[in-house]
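[AMINO ACID CHAIN]
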Amino acid sequence: MRNSQGLGHHHPAQGFSLVEVMIAAAVLFVLLSSANRTLMMSMANSRQGASRMQIESDILNDIEIIQGIDTSLSSDLNGCGSGGGSTYLKGKIESMNPVASDAPWERQLVATDATLLRITYSFSTSEMTGDTSTEQRIVEINPSFLSECPLP
């Protein structure tokens, strides 16, 4: 009979040595920490995307409200005066649809042309990306009630 537990023989039931377990634990730690970092970055990007999408949605809602105000003035001939249609529309928008003080965006109405109202929406992305940058959305509207004005 042979002695199966003699020197130089490795029996499969003996398991891993302490050094092998420590190396495996170190490799597993590195893999899990890199996976955790990737997960945290993707969650931050998702949160930033949701914030940007909410701001874009708020701006689109404001544009629709402004278009509704413009449409409601279709029979109002008060804007046909010498001040210009865009100035009249600007005044109506400012009185009927002011920007909320806690809105994450700003709106600027520019009526330099009598037939064109330029609306500039600005919002900061500093809280989203860490750097301070401002994005803008520009919309130009021709007051629709001007088509009802009598010719001079």
The chain has three helices and three strands.
